[in-house]
Design goal:
By secondary structure, the protein is mostly helical. 77% of the residues lie in helices and 0% in strands. Helix 4 packs across helix 7. The longest helix has 29 residues. It starts with a helix and ends with a helix.
């Protein structure tokens, strides 16, 4: 039976704060957030990167409110949520086409859709699907967009699985490794999360830089 204290803490949860989500819902919350952020357009605002990193950190017993998670179930929840969410988003896009994105009034969501379409056009299906995992909002909209644009189901499944595992397990294990090696690391949680998010954007920045170089080379040859 849910006690009034637990119930009130769940009702007061801040969906934009990773520690608040983990304190209220634990490992189950990680799986649900991963699914929503990667599979449902309404989940584009959820803190995927910081949630994974913070959850890994809390597996070491570090953190406020005495929250401690188990690493094994956490890795399973993170991976299953991320992979199932992406596949769900793809199927939604396959059936609904671009109608959902076209009706959206969110400027941030539309911008993410433009960047996702640019990735697909510039880098091809495989590389774009993997890179999108590391870019907030883009990882939300690329999955239904891939379905709407007719990306083959086999190609999408293989590469979203590869990218999803590297992203979800990599960030979780990074948080766990850091929490295991540095005492009281939770004091520096906010700057660490910002650093992890910045690092996750490096592959995209490298690809964009290479793409511009290739475009300049083609222009110079003409």
């Amino acid at each position: 039976m849910t006690t009034p204290v637990v119930l009130s803490s769940q009702l007061a949860v801040n969906p934009l704060d990773a520690q608040s989500l983990l304190a209220a819902f634990g490992v189950l919350g990680v799986g649900v957030v991963m699914f929503a952020e990667t599979g449902l357009l309404i989940g584009f605002f959820l803190p995927g990167d910081s949630l994974l990193f913070t959850a890994g950190l809390l597996c070491t017993g570090t953190g406020q409110h005495g929250v401690k998670l188990s690493l094994g179930p956490l890795l399973v929840a993170a991976a299953v949520g991320a992979l199932a969410g992406a596949q769900c988003g793809y199927l939604i896009g396959r059936r609904a086409g671009g109608a959902l994105l076209a009706r959206s009034r969110s400027a941030r969501l539309r911008e993410g859709a433009e960047r996702a379409e640019e990735l697909l056009g510039r880098y091809g299906h495989a590389k774009a699907i993997v890179l999108a995992r590391f870019v907030p909002v883009v990882r939300t909209v690329l999955n239904p967009l891939a379905g709407a644009l007719g990306v083959p189901a086999r190609v999408f499944t293989v590469w979203q699985t590869a990218g999803g595992l590297v992203w979800s397990l990599g960030l979780t294990l990074a948080g766990y490794a850091l929490g295991s090696s540095i005492p009281n690391v939770d004091r520096y949680l906010l700057p660490l999360v910002a650093l992890i998010v910045a690092i996750s954007l490096v592959p995209l920045a490298v690809e964009l830089y290479r793409g511009r170089e290739r475009a300049q080379e083609k222009g110079a040859r003409r």
